[in-house]
Amino acid sequence: MENTRCFANRFSDYRGALLPGQSVKVIAPTVVATVDKILKNVPIDFSDCDGGLYDGPAGVAYMLYHVSECPLFFQHREVYLKTAKQMIDLSVRYVDAEPDINMRAAFLLGGAGIYAVAAMIYKSMGLADFVKPLTKFRNLWEVCAPINFLECGSDELFVGRAGYLCAALVLRQKLGIEILSKDQIKSICQAIIESGKQYSRRKRKPFPLMYSYYGTEYLGAAHGLSSVLQMLLSYQDMLSSAEKDLVWQSIDFLMNQEQNCNWPAELGAIIERENELVHWCHGAPGVAYLFAKAYLINKRPQYLDTCIRSGELVWQKGLLKKGPGICHGVAGSAYVFLLLYRLTGNSKYIYRAQRFAEFLFTEEFKTGSHSVSSVFSLFEGLSGTVCFLVDLLQPDQAEFPLFSVFVCTLWPL
């Protein structure tokens, strides 16, 4: 029976040599051509600014920023940043006018992410104005501090508290300055933990911390437990020892939900092997980042082993039919290999990422993949693909866009 979710992986696995056809000479012109294609097709207009970083023009602006930061594209840097600024300026105006303050505090779907990327672009251009969007971002911490600030679920990555903490982490990494005070971070972390404890008790869960989004108990990176725990780990030096214990217990509970190297989209579901989700948003390609973070912090081998098993599943089932993007597409799968390369130093993972990059440009992929509505966007479309191709050229610094795992989290006293 044909798998409706992924193409068969017919590539031979690593035999000790990387692909000569995936050199800078080949990939760099592909990046430039793809960026040109995106810019010809993305309208820069106030009425098209919806969608946040996920599938709005702000995500395209982030991609341009990411390419401009890579020394290999230095000759395009000025033009890319100038275009990125046009897009992000409009997006900032759009979210400034957003009447719903809660949407303004959303990371991937609203204002917090847009303000964060605006600050990064302005800083990269040497503009002192970067402080303006940064201040707007900082002022949002109070919005997400109340335990139930969102009826749909206040803690997940796209619109909730975990996303706000994620944006602050990326900003700290890119700008090299403290973004929030210790007290502000602590209050948000405590709200996440208290919210998770309350939900777990109320629903009699086996996890000490659990969350739901629109009534569903997701486990994956997009709306689920794994990214919430990943953000708590990223700020673990702000937690009390009792809070840390709850986080680590929850991580181990989540590890035990593994089914055949994968995780169900929601708690308690049984994975149907022929129809399983192997996406960054739902499944192993996103959950792997939590265990990568756990391994980086305490070096327990079972966390690395979990990431490696996830990578094996992605090699088998990660050539996804849902487009080229990073949320549920081929580039999102391939980022797992770049993550594993950084964790292990094993060149096999660069080779696997190269094979997935190669597949993106085959006839089989172009004719057999489903069309996506936001074909040029960061999370569903080609802007995310561009980020992946750039990172394939700099694997020692590669990171899934806006989802920092390797940033140092120790705060100075």
UniProtKB/TrEMBL annotation:
GO terms for cellular component: plasma membrane. SMART domains: LANC_like (SM01260). InterPro entries: LANC-like. Pfam families: LANC_like (PF05147). It comes from the Eukaryota. GO terms for biological process: peptide modification. GO terms for molecular function: metal ion binding. Keywords: Metal-binding, Zinc. Zn(2+) binds at residues 281, 327-328. CDD domains: euk_LANCL (cd04794). Belongs to the LanC-like protein family. This is LanC-like protein 3. It comes from Solea senegalensis.
